């Protein structure tokens, strides 16, 4: 019993550290030294795709899509916080992860910007995300990440919700990132 006074502070310290680790989720990843400036589209980054205006048929598909009931996240924009104000003149890097309706990496999908009009750009999971696999304790999710170089030249200034749309043979699925970006001139 004489070791109890020493044991209690140690247990409290361990519990505090464990609580901090558990409270940090994949969706709130630490930003690895991001500059806050746009990504320059260097060869080391992803292929650059252009956001295109969604036609009426595609807008209807999004409206009738089913929720995946799975996790997704837009973690970073230009290696900084995802709720960003970004210029339509530049190419921007978007990083995150997406699980499909089956609970596995989604594969091909579209990043959709929902505002007064809707815009979309093709993307694909496959980027290594060991943090996602560790968080969900499922090693098969290690490739659920995505990285996209996105041109917003066709996107008018305004606020946009970021949604992911998965084209699936049995119907379309969506996952809301819970993030908004603001496109400026």
From TrEMBL:
<protein>
    <recommendedName>
        <fullName>Lipoprotein</fullName>
    </recommendedName>
</protein>
């Amino acid at each position: 019993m004489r070791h109890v006074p020493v044991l209690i502070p140690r247990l409290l310290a361990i519990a505090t550290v464990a609580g901090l680790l558990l409270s940090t989720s994949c969706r709130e990843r630490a930003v690895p030294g991001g500059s806050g400036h746009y990504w320059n589209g260097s060869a080391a980054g992803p292929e650059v795709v252009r956001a295109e205006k969604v036609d009426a048929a595609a807008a209807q598909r999004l409206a009738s899509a089913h929720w995946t009931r799975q996790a997704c996240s837009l973690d970073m924009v230009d290696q900084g916080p995802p709720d960003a104000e970004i210029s339509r003149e530049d190419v921007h890097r978007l990083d995150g992860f997406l699980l499909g309706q089956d609970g596995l990496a989604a594969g091909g999908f579209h990043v959709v910007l929902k505002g007064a009009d809707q815009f979309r750009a093709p993307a694909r999971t496959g980027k290594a995300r060991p943090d996602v696999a560790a968080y969900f304790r499922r090693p098969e999710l290690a490739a659920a990440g995505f990285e996209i170089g996105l041109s917003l030249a066709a996107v008018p200034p305004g606020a946009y919700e970021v949604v992911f749309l998965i084209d699936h043979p049995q119907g379309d699925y969506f996952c809301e990132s819970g993030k908004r970006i603001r496109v400026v001139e």
